[in-house]
UniProtKB/TrEMBL annotation:
Highest taxon of source: Bacteria
InterPro entries per record: LysR_HTH_N, LysR_subst-bd, WH-like_DNA-bd_sf, WH_DNA-bd_sf
GO cellular component terms attached to this protein's record: protein-DNA complex
Protein name: DNA-binding transcriptional LysR family regulator
Entries under Gene3D superfamilies matching the protein: Periplasmic binding protein-like II (3.40.190.10), Winged helix-like DNA-binding domain superfamily/Winged helix DNA-binding domain (1.10.10.10)
Key words of the record: DNA-binding, Transcription, Transcription regulation
Molecular functions (GO terms): DNA binding; DNA-binding transcription factor activity
Domain called HTH lysR-type: residue spans: 4-61
Family per similarity comment: Belongs to the LysR transcriptional regulatory family.
Pfam families (alphabetical): HTH_1 (PF00126), LysR_substrate (PF03466)
CDD domains xref list: PBP2_LTTR_aromatics_like
PROSITE patterns: HTH_LYSR
Length: 295
């Protein structure tokens, strides 16, 4: 008897489960003729008939019914073996996503600490909004991400980190800039820059629920994606903005940052999200993120 291979077993298993050569070919991304030839090849190697076909239906023979559970077990064992052996290989890189909802410099201590702790590993950074980072986790493009909460996390493991209270960014020439602390009521008559809901739906809804509780309904302006453009507009007196505290690190002539009375209530919370298959350095990443991102 000639040896059979996993390719033939895979074709047999899909065909046996669908009992439809056309559907089986579609699932295997091949055309029907090579599928039929593969089944014939397998039958010749085994010396038994596996399928009964007529113009109306496809059925398994007694031999085919006996082979199916064995074929599925062999394929599952091979998949498990491949997964297990892959887990023994230390990855050469850590692909880390970082939210753009906070000032990028907030992460400098974390990334520097990772470079020191993992000298033989490349740390690849991706900056994006939190929903897109979660999507990248799901697609397997990154291993972990620091995201802004609340964000829909698709049931991936999430570990809470620190938080950043909201503050007011305002033109230094504005009379309100003379105060040390402002409230939402103080800026209710000012144009307020705010991000669009599509960028971060859950956090947008969270903020606006708090705005409703405080009867805060100013004229909202669309916040530019580039924070330097935003601060330039604020310096020019075009409006004010509510920003996480880390943005105080962005110094621009003409822009003042003031504490917000409701800042803790509106605080942006940070969290570490990881994929279903955790990277071997996940615990180290969480420890360092907790150390350098806690506030």
């Amino acid at each position: 008897m000639s040896k059979i291979n996993t390719h033939l077993l895979q074709i047999f298993a899909v065909t046996a489960q669908t009992l439809n050569f056309r559907l089986a070919a579609e699932q295997l991304h091949i055309t029907q003729p090579p599928l039929s030839r593969a089944i014939q090849n397998l039958e010749q190697r085994l010396g038994v008939k596996l399928f009964l076909r007529d113009t109306q239906s496809v059925q398994l023979t007694s031999a085919g019914k006996l082979l199916l559970p064995r074929a599925l077990a062999i394929l599952a064992m091979l998949d498990d073996t491949e997964t297990f052996m892959s887990s023994l290989v230390e990855p050469s890189q850590l692909r880390l996503g970082l939210t753009t909802s906070v000032e990028a410099g907030s992460f400098s201590q974390l990334t520097e600490a990772l470079a020191i702790a993992l000298p033989g590993m490349s740390v690849e950074l991706t900056y994006d909004n939190s929903p897109k980072l979660v999507a990248a986790i799901k697609a397997g493009r990154i291993d972990a991400a620091v995201i802004a909460m609340p964000t829909r996390t698709l049931d991936f493991p999430v570990q809470s980190l620190g938080q950043q209270p909201m503050m007011v960014a305002i033109s230094s020439k504005h009379p309100l800039a003379n105060r040390r602390q402002l409230s939402l009521a103080d800026i209710a008559s000012e144009p307020v820059y705010h991000f669009e809901r599509a960028r971060q739906p859950a956090f947008f809804d969270y903020c606006h629920e708090i705005f409703r509780r405080h009867h805060f309904a100013p004229r909202f302006l669309l916040e530019p994606n580039d924070h330097h453009v935003l601060l330039s507009d604020i310096a020019a007196g075009k409006g004010v903005a509510l920003l996480p505290a880390s943005f105080k690190a962005l110094r621009l002539t003409g822009v003042s940052y003031r504490k917000l009375k409701e800042g803790d209530e509106l605080a942006l919370k940070l969290a570490l999200i990881t994929g279903a298959n955790a990277h071997p350095q996940t615990n180290l990443l969480f420890d360092l993120a907790g150390k350098y991102l806690q506030t």
